[in-house]
Amino acid sequence: MKKSKLIMMLGSLLLVSLFIFPLWNITLEAPQYPEPLGMDIWITKIADHNPNDVKNINLMNHYVGMREIPEHMKEFDIFPPVVMAMAILGLLIGWKAKPKFYLAWFVLMSVLGIAGMYDFYQWEYDYGHNLNPKAAIKFVDEVGKPMAYQPPLFGTKTILNFTAHSYPMVGGYLLFLGMFSSIVAYYISRKEDRDDALGGS
Amino acid sequence: MIHKLIIFSVAAMMIFTCSTDEKASTQEPSSFANNTPKGQASVVDNVSAKNILQVAVGSKDHTTLVAAVQAAEIEHILVNAGPITVFAPNNAAFAALPDGTVENLLKPENKAMLVDILTRHAAPGTYDVKQLKKEAKKKRKVYTATGDYFDVVVKGDDIYVAGAKILATIATSNGIINVVDKVILPAK
Amino acid sequence: MKKINKTAFLLLAISLIVGLTSCVQDKSQKGALAGSTAEKVFVAPGEYDDYYAFLSGGFSGQLAVHGLPSGRLFKVIPVFSVDGEKAYGFNEETKPMLETSYGSIPWDDSHHPDLSQTNGEIDGRWCFINANNTPRIARISLKTFETVEIIEIPNSAGNHSSSFVTENTEYVVAGTRFSIPVPQKDMSIDEYKGNFKGALSFIKVDPDDGIMSIEFQILMPGFNYDLSHPGRGKSHGWMFFSTYNTEEANSLLEVNASQNDKDFIAAINWKKAEEYIKAGKFKTVPTKYAHNVYDESTHSATSTMEKTVRILDPAALPGLVYFMPTPKSPHGCDVDPTGEYIVGSGKLAAALTVHSFSKMIKAIEEKNFDGEAYGIPILSFDATLAGTVQQPGLGPLHTEFDGKGNAYTTFFISSEIVKWKLGTWEVLDRKPTYYSVGHLMIPGGNSRKPFGKYVLAMNKITKDRYISTGPEVCQSAQLYDISGDKMELLLDFPTIGEPHYAAGCPTELIHPYTQKIYKLEDNKHPYVTKSEHEAKVVRDGNNVHIYMTMIRSHFAPDNIEGVQTGDRVYFHVTNLEQDYDVPHGISIIGAKTSELLIMPGQTETFVWEPKNIGVWPFYCTDFCSALHQEMQGYVRVSPKGSDVPLKWSLDGEDL
């Protein structure tokens, strides 16, 4: 089998790791939490990084009126079939299709990825802005508007006494690697074609 | 002018840095200032009932004994919770020793011997007159801090311990002082 | 102008150098000692102490947890006395812990903590401690730092020569101080001699869960049994007890028990005892003693009354016990890390007596006896004697070891610690204590592997050592650095109650394994409420059971109606938190008991018997959170027979 095919197929297989590893992580640091609170975002759930972390994040956040981290979201129903479908599609493309479809797969993945990130942002925005009007503690920002507690989409941000970190986890990195593999596979295939052409003459 | 200013400020700096240093160094060891060999004997207390050492120090008849105790640096033993009984030779008892004996014992190089002689005069327990008479009756001996055993004998109204006659008995806060007329030397 | 500047700078530079060096010298001459001493005990904010020290609370009945070298007090673990702070003995869950055959007892006198061992080394699992007055042994979990078991010792009185563990925690040993009639009976005190007995108890410890059971008692002659320590290494399988009052006096012991030239150290061959038990050479006698166990899954203690105990008679069982004559009422009875030397501190003696284990075995083999006492062979004094430390001080009490061949003995009357060398018996150093030292402790000093960096002296008298607190002043502990040739006093800190003995070990043996929270899903308390939806109030005749939860920053329910005067109201409160160090407390006005202090995931219960109608508030007693002061609620109490229905709510809604 050609190297490019192999890379393309292995790359799409990497998507399956999202069922085994968490995709993303948000960690909250504060002086009174020597062990920071963290939640791991999977394609199927939001889970404790250390035991009881989600419960304790909810407990801290309820004072400012933030809702509890949901146990179930519609995304948990959508992500697994989509990821599975894309993995299978990638495998099929790698096995049967022409290399230019590798690029198509990559573009499709990117569109889905951006959509996912947008969805994540929307949820974060809502989580940080849509506050219980009966909240015990209401902070305002410099211009007197109610303070928002939206975690960062990517990177690190200070929210009151907490430092929030939002970064991919193993599943996320493997996903990027998988997507990157499709491009690599495409370029290798072109080289292979050139070599074939030279070899044939 | 600049000259003066600089010198002044340097001097001020030196005083400042050194003075803080000095403060630290004089304050910290002060917590150790009480750590003299006298231990509990250095506790200042004018309210509590007097202990053996305080009574002895206040007695005109025991200046030699007190001097010996101080030379032996065993004051803290006489202020211990006890109860202890001290058979306290008076000045006359020390004076009755061969010439030069006391002077010799008070020399620093003979401290161990002095400690031994003095602690022989102390016994754990409360041996007042009543108790000593009982010991005599039951033919029990008094065991001293050096591990010696003293006979107790009653002759008429008098009590003798290891041959020394008891002249007076004083109850103190941490035990008994029995004034004796003799220095009790090691049995040969 | 420029020139002036130059010289000025030169001057400045010179004076600065001079100034600096003079200051440096100053420091090295005056402040260096004090500075380095302070540094040796300074544990920077956020840093950890190197050692745990468990100090007995003496007449407080408790156990104090300190850190060394800082001396800081971290926790007072309630053991034998009630503690309103932690609801120990007040909440329904821990009340059974204080049950005895005499009924519930709210106080005792705790003396000698000892840590569990494996292969002669401290394993950091449990701490044992004895109750002296009403004889009991407690086991404290070093995962939760809570008292998890208390076993009463029958046929014992003044449980003093306790609670010392053998090399693999096979047994924790408890010896009686007083001899008494066994079994108890109405008899003349004057008939003491020959009739009173002293029971030495061997309590088996389950190697997995630590549960204790009295395996057997050895019924000894009517002496006083003062202290004990286990053999280790080569002497593993033996236990050594010091005795006094071999005169068998029953009055004015300060005189009458000080007559004999020598008392004994009793050497007990407990492996032999096991053989006799196996061979059925024991007598099962009826008695009564409480066995109280705290279950960590139900968070509740149960008390059972045991009915019999097995007794071994040393006079009838050869090879079980031997007496080693030891001068003048030995108090401490301490075994060195190799197990070869047994140090007897005759508290009235002028010298320290050290016995040799191998010489003892040889003397037994050669039957080198010097008579017998009540059928127990007395070994010849010279045959077991390893050596004596001559004129070490006045009033020797206890000895610990640094593992480098040195021993450290306390002297009560001369108020000092004396360091001496095992084998040569020479005195190497002495340092005063302030004042009148009792026990001393080297972490691991009672094991095969001492950590010979510090020795902690525990003093009975402090007088002028601290700012005064009136007639009653604290007792104290003093820390000495023993890493060098000479001991160095580092620190002096106050203690709770009376620190009799202490046990210590390196931080890393315990700290990493401690428990942070009780897992809610593992909570099997019969009255647990695992979520706010399950909170409820149930009436059962005059008993009202409130199933309540607490979480930052409210109770559920927090409004309760339908309680009546004459009711017995049980507050079963579950802390729903699953976050480290977020306890909540609760109490209600007029409650004739203590608050509850409930750890995350734990359930506790207190009883309230409202006498008056009205609306009565309750609140959280531990500053738990930013809205702690909002964490409160009301109970409405109606007259007896009222038709106000039972109702409970949170935020105006049913749960």
In CATH terms, the superfamily of the largest domain in chain B is FAS1 domain
Name the CATH superfamily classification of the domain at 59-337 and 360-383 and 494-513 in chain C.
Answer: YVTN repeat-like/Quinoprotein amine dehydrogenase
Based on Cα principal axes, name the global outline of chain B.
Answer: globular
Beta-strand percent range of chain B: 15-25%
Strand content of chain C: 35-45%
CATH-defined architecture of the largest domain in chain B: Roll
User: If you average the pLDDT of chain C, what whole number results?
Assistant: 93
> Which percent bin holds the helix content of chain B?
25-40%
Number of domains of chain B: 2
Number of strands of chain C: 45
Query: Can you tell me the residue ranges of chain B where pLDDT is under 50 for at least 5 consecutive residues?
Result: 5-36
Estimated structural class of chain C = mainly beta
For the record, the CATH architecture of the domain at 59-337 and 360-383 and 494-513 in chain C stands as 7 Propeller
Mean pLDDT of chain B: 81
Would you give an account of this structure?
- The complex is a heterotrimer of chains A (201), B (188) and C (655).
- Chain A contains 5 helices and 5 strands.
- Chain A has 201 residues and is of the alpha+beta class.
- In chain A, strands 3-2-1-5-4 form a 5-stranded antiparallel β-sheet.
- Chain B has helices at 2-27, 52-57, 63-72, 75-78, 91-95, 101-105, 111-119, 129-137, and strands at 84-89, 122-124, 142-143, 149-150, 152-155, 158-161, 164-172, 175-180.
- Residues 5-36 of chain B have low confidence and may be disordered.
- In chain B, the strands form 2 sheets. A 6-stranded mixed β-sheet of chain B has the order 2-1-8-7-6-5. In chain B, strands 3-4 form a two-stranded antiparallel ribbon.
- With 188 residues, chain B is of the alpha+beta class.
- By secondary structure, chain C is mostly beta strands.
- Among the domains of chain C are: 59-337 and 360-383 and 494-513, YVTN repeat-like/Quinoprotein amine dehydrogenase (Methylamine Dehydrogenase, Chain H), CATH 2.130.10; 521-649, Cupredoxins -  blue copper proteins (Immunoglobulin-like).
- Chain C contains 5 helices and 45 strands.
- In chain C, strand 27 and strand 28 form a beta hairpin.
- The relative contact order of chain C is 0.10.
- The chains are: A alpha+beta (201), B alpha+beta (188), C mainly beta (655).
- Chains in contact: A-C, B-C.
- Chains B and C meet through helix 1 of B and helix 1 of C.
